[in-house]
Amino acid sequence: MIQEYLQKSTKKVLNTLELAVSELVKQKQNLLTPDFVLLALLSQPDSEAVKIIESISADPVDVTTQIRARIQKHYQLTTPNDATQIVGSQELTNLFQIAHEEAKKLGDEFIATGTLFLALFDSRTGHTAELLRTSGLRYKPALEALRNLRQGQSISSQDAETEADVLSKYTRDLTELARQGKLDPVIGREKEIHQIIQTLSRRKKNNPVLIGEAGVGKTVIVEHLAQRIADADVPDTLINKRLLALEMGEIIAGANMRGEFEQRLKSVRDAVIKAKGKVILFIDELHTVVGAGAAAGGLDAPSLLKTALAQGNLKVIGADTLNEYHRYIEADKALERRFHPVLVRAPSIEETIQILKGIAPRYEAHHQIQYQPKALEAAARLAERYLTDRQLPDKAVDLIDEAGSQKHIRLISIPHNIKVLEQKHQKLHRDKSEAFGVQDFARVASLQMEILKLEETLKSARESWQADRSKLDSLVSEEDIAEVVSAWTGIPVARMVESESQKLTRMEENLHRRIVG
User: Fold this and answer.
1) 399 and 461 share a domain?
2) Could you tell me if 260 and 388 lie in one domain?
3) How far is CA 229 from CA 194, 280, 318, in A?
4) Is it the case that residue 295 has pLDDT exceeding 60?
5) Within this chain, do residues 119 and 50 fall inside the same structural domain, yes or no?
6) pLDDT averaged over every residue in the chain
7) Would residue 509 count as lying in a domain?
8) Buried b vs exposed e over 98-113: b needs ≥16 C-beta within 10 Å?
9) Do residues 402 and 272 share a domain?
C-alpha cells in the first residue's frame, strides 16, 4: 500500500525514508514507525519540516532537541529486535495516506517533506501527534507557515524540493527578507522603479539592467522592488512573484573545476525556469556571469543563459557599471537584445539627505545612538565635497555608519583606570594560587585581604563609570561626521565644519594679505 504513495513522493521524501531506516537500525528496532520519519525530517536542516519549526517556534533548536530526546528515550526502553527484517507499521501507511491528502489540499502533485510533517499532527500516525503538541507545536500554525514558505509555489515534480534547495543555497530571497522587514527603507527612486516594472511587463526585451556607477544605489532599487512585491504594491503581473538575488560567491565557492561552476549555474537556471515565471532572478555585476566566457580559459556561462532568455523562459534583472555594460553586454549583440537598459544616476545632495533620514533609525538602533539632523546633512555635503572617488548615497551612508560606530565604542569603552584595576585583580589571584601551591597560608590570607579591598575599589570605580556613561552624549553631531572625513582624507576638521560666512571672512583676509594697495 505504501509503495503507491512512494511513487507520488518527492526525491527528498524518499531520501527522508532512507534516513528513517538508518535511525531505526541505530535504535536496534525492526518496526518502521512515524517516530523515525520525524527524526529523519529533523536531521535535515533544509527540509520544509525544520523550516516550519523555525517559523512557528521561539526556540526551534530546543524544540527539535526535546523531540529527539523523547523519541530516543522511548526506544531505549524498548526490547531490541532484529533490524535485518524491517517492516512498516500501519501508522506509517496512515502517515503517507494523510500526507497525500495534505498535498492535494495544497495543490501539490507529490508528497513533500512539508506535507509529510503536517500529517504527523494527525492522531492516526501514533504518538508523534501528542509529541508535537507537548513540544508546543500546533497543526494550524504549521500549515500557515508552510503556505508562507511556499509563497504560492506548488510541488509539481519529484525534483521540486531539490530545485527549491538549489535556490535557497545559491540565491537570497529578497521578497522574503522584505516580508520580514529586514531590508532598509528606500526614499525616492520612483522613476527607476517604474521603468523596471514597465520593462518586466514588456513582451520582448523584458529583462531590465540597471546601469550606474558603483555606490549609486542599484541594488537598493531592486530591494525596493522586492518590498513593493511583498506589499502587493505592484501591477497584477508581478503579484506573488519571488525576487531572488543570485549569490555568485556561493556558486563559485569550492568550484575548482570548470564544469562544476557551470553545473551549479545551470541548476539555478533550471530551477528558475521550472518555477514557470514565478521567479525573477537578480544578477548584480551582470558581466561576471554573462561575460565570464570572454576571458581565455574562462567559464562559458553566457551560453547557459542566452537560450533561456531568448525563449522568454528566464526573467532577469541585471545591474552593472556603464563601462562593464559596454564591454561585455553591448559587445555581444545576441545578449544585448535580451536586456533593456535603465540608467541610474547618483542622487543629489538634497535627495541623499532624505535617504539618510529614511535609513537613520536602522543605524540608530544598531549603534544605540542618535543622529542630529545636521549630522545627516553634513554627511551628504561632506561626502560629496571630500570623498570624490565614490558616489552618493553610498559614501554618505558609510559616513553615518562609521560615525555611529565610533560614538558607540566611546560610550562602551572601559576606562583605563578600571582596566589597570582589573589587571591587578587578576595578578593578585595568580599570586594567591601560587602561594596556596607552596602552602604559604599566611601569604594566602594577606593576598585575600588585598583582593577584597581591591574588589571594593573596583566596584566603586565601575559604579562611577556607569554614572558617567549615563551623562555622556549619545548624539552623533556634525563634528563627529567631520572627524570621520578627516580621518579618511587627512583634511583638518575645522576646515570642514566652519560656516560659509567664516569661509568668506577667511578668504577676504587671505586676499588682503596677498594683494597690496
Assistant:
1) no
2) no
3) 13, 11, 18
4) no
5) yes
6) 88
7) no
8) bbbebbeebebebbbb
9) no
pLDDT band, residue 503 (cuts 50/70/90): low
Asked if 211 and 317 count as a contact pair (C-beta separation under 8 A), the reply is: no
C-alpha cell at 158: 519529484
| Domain match, 241 and 193 both | yes
How far is residue 106's CA from residue 111's CA, in Å, rounded to a whole number? 10
Domain end residue (candidates: 118, 134, 156): 156
Going by pLDDT thresholds of 50, 70 and 90, the confidence category of residue 297 is very low
**CA atoms of 270 and 248, how far apart (whole Å):** 16
Task: Tell me which residue of 81, 83, 153, 73 sits closest to 114, measured CA to CA.
Answer: 153
The CA distance from 195 to 201, in Å, is 10
- Whole-prediction pTM value? 0.75
Q: Which one-letter DSSP state was computed for residue 325? A: I
Q: Is the pLDDT of residue 500 over 70?
A: no
3-state secondary structure 43-58: CCCCCHHHHHHHHHCC
For residues 295-308, average pLDDT = 66
Instruction: Pick the closest to residue 400 from 295, 315, 485 (CA basis).
Output: 485
Residue 361, CA distances (Å) to 98, 177, 355, 356, 376 in order: 48, 18, 11, 9, 12
Instruction: Specify whether the CB–CB gap between 272 and 282 falls below 8 A.
Output: no
| Angle (CA) 446 448 449, round 5° | 65
What's the CATH code of the domain at 394? Answer: 1.10.8.60
Kindly list the distances between the CA atom of residue 514 and the CA atoms of 415, 495, 502, in Å, as whole numbers in the listed order.
Answer: 49, 20, 18
Q: How do residues 267-293 score in pLDDT, each as one tens digit?
A: 999 999 988 889 999 999 999 888 654
* C-alpha–C-alpha distance, residues 217 and 352, integer Å: 11
CA distance 112 to 114: 5
Residue 440's domain comprises 416-471
- Placement of cell 561626521 in the chain: 481
Residue 109, all three cell numbers: 502533485
Q: Are residues 98 and 244 in the same domain?
A: no
DSSP conformation class of 281: E
pLDDT interval class at 208 (50, 70, 90)? very high
Cell of 242: 519571488
In a domain, 331, yes or no: yes
Judge whether 447 lies within some domain. yes
| Per-residue pLDDT at 509 | 65
Element (H, E) at 452: helix 441-471
Please report the pLDDT score of residue 299 as a whole number.
47
Identify whether residues 459 and 310 lie together within a single domain: no
pLDDT for position 75: 79
Q: Is 511 part of any domain?
A: no
Identify the CA nearest to 88 among candidates 145, 51, 133, 35: 35
